[in-house]
Amino acid sequence: MKALVYKSTGQLALEEKAKPALIATTDAIIKITKTTICGTDLHILKGDVKEVAYGTTLGHEGIGIVEETGNAVSNFKKGDHVLISCITSCGKCDYCRKGMYSHCREGGWILGHLIDGTQAEYVRIPYADTSLYHIPADTNEESLVMLSDILPTGYECGVLNGQVQPGTTVAIVGAGPIGLAALTTAQFFTPAAIIMIDTDSNRLEVAQSMGATHTINSSQENVIESVMALTDGEGVDTAMEAVGIPATFELCTHLIKPGGKVANIGVHGKSVSLALEDLWSKNITITTRLVDTSTTPMLLKSVSSQHLDPASFITHRFKLSEIETAYKTFGNAAKEKALKVIISNE
Ligand code: ZN
Ligand code: ZN
């Protein structure tokens, strides 16, 4: 089969690889129909995620059709259309029993990280019963690729941890797919204002079309002054960090009012400075989280009931044979006006 392989830092290639086989009785083999590329895959390619071995098939998002199941798999059978969660969970360990699947002792984020991932014709999914979801009939299947990672990530790490409530004010720093996923799902709670902050005017336009009440181009405006002007000089109730660099995290700590929450979503590779001399008395909360995907069933229902339309995140489509070009397009997201690219298995 064809698979997109991480060869070495900065190098990837679509190669012929052996089709995965069942290893444990709890495994399933899935024929991938659609997958996508995540910002995290670009971090891996840059060499930021050291534990990814050369030769690993990348990708932790996708949908597909069950090809084969181990004897212990009871929820899924050959031919079922399934959504693959970016988080693998055994369902039995202490973390899984708490709903903290991201820290599953047997799983967590392993796809396209510690084991071969979804940017291939087939993938082996461990603990299939608790790591796959049935795709409801009559849904736009392709759009559900956004439920593997970005929508649960924006919702759990940003909206739930940031405690967005009706009437509150929210700032989201970063209008990439994850920031936009937080913007979209924050609207479940009808906040009074959602201010999107980015350096890319195209992404801010998209944010406006997805429900942002205000946008701030941080390459043209002083963000702190603009946010204060929009919030009667007080700051916001919730600031979400959706970039993953020190400057944007530190910015979030300056945007919140007393009692405010900074909800980190970004993947960070460097230390940040925390102005604790200003913050110690402000009753603030800072949260971090690796997505658990515990809200995926709820998000699937929101898509079915048309309260959530993940199709609006898709800007480009490629075949698996064109995946190297897809990486280039996604890697030049601002110039290409790319949000999420869909890779189809021809
Ligand atoms: Zn991802
Ligand atoms: Zn577990």
CATH-level-2 architecture of the largest domain: Alpha-Beta Complex
**Shape summary:** globular
**CATH top level of the largest domain?**
Alpha Beta
The biggest sheet amounts to:
7 strands, mixed
Based on CA atoms alone, the radius of gyration comes out at: 20 Å
Q: Report the total helices.
A: 12
How would you portray this structure in words?
By secondary structure, the protein is α/β, with parallel strands linked by helices. It folds into two domains: 2-148 and 292-344, Quinone Oxidoreductase, Chain A, domain 1; 152-287, Rossmann fold (3-Layer(aba) Sandwich), CATH 3.40.50.720. Helices cover 26% and strands 25% of the residues. It is built from twelve helices and 15 strands. It has helices spanning 39-46, 94-97, 128-131, 150-160, 177-186, 201-209, 223-230, 246-255, 276-279, 296-304, 323-331, 333-336; strands at residues 2-8, 11-16, 28-36, 62-69, 81-84, 122-125, 132-134, 169-173, 193-198, 214-217, 236-241, 256-264, 285-287, 314-319, 340-344. Strands 3, 4, 5, 6, 7, 14 and 15 form a seven-stranded mixed beta sheet that branches. Helix 4 packs across helix 5 (177-186). The protein is globular. It starts with a strand and ends with a strand. It binds zinc ion (2 copies). Residues 89-90, 92-93, 95-96, 104-107 line the site of one zinc ion.
